[in-house]
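FORM 7B: Structural annotation worksheet

SECTION A. Query
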Amino acid sequence: MSTIKVKNSIIAGIVLMCIAVACLGINDAFAKHLADRYSPMQILFMRNIIAFPFTLLLALLMQGKAALRSSKPHVHLIRGVFWVLATYLFFTSIKHIGLAKSTALLLASPLIIVALSSWFLKERAGFKVWSIVIFGLIGALIIIRPGFAAFEPISVLAFLAALMAAFLMLSARWVDEGESFWTVMLYLTAASGLVSAIAVPFFWVPLHLSDFPLFCGVAAFGTAGMVLMTQAFRLAPATILAPLDYTALLWATIFGWLIWNEVPDLLTFIGATIIIASGIASATKRGQK
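SECTION B. Predicted structure
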């Protein structure tokens, strides 16, 4: 591949990554608006049943019937549980502590992945990497502030969402390497839909017809964000794209301020800055290997 093609591919990947993060930010804003009237589990269920037909159609168009075949459907079911838990915890947290604060804590997920990889995948991490991870987790503690008067117990849910998201990413190692992105996406959507369908009767309240466009927005922007982000990582190196994921905090802050007049306090910004700096340093360090 020529230098020009490589450069164009990287630029395309960067553009897609930025659009993907913005889409996910809009998805979160829609979810927060709906969370005033519905349980996060019901929002998640509605997102899945609306998104699944379109995901199925996309998978069939892109890969044909081969997209329907998986050698390890049980792995996708496990990953569906992780995705439901991560989304439920995150949607619950944004209802109570705001978009920016919840998003800042969710951004600790890449650092958690590094820590868990050392324990569960036996991937060695040196002193510098562990120092970066610990520094980032200190940033999360600054945001949560356990033991202080400003401590909000619900903020722990956002950090647990980051933990579940880390498990979701790490469990991708269990997926058959021969399965395409479309198969993985289709089965993950179906699995999370099944898991949320089992739980949603305990949370269900009657739907308002006027809210249906918002549910469609959650499904559309959430699915678009994941598809675009995956395509971005196919076009450009992860070390270039990973730091762009932190622009999610920018979108969360903007939407939180414009729609709900939420302004994160100074310690939240300090903690978020530490998490972002640690995440970028960790991604850079891994990219040098």
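SECTION C. Observations
The chain has a mean pLDDT of 86. Residues 3-34 form the longest helix (32 residues).

SECTION D. Sign-off
Analyst initials: ____
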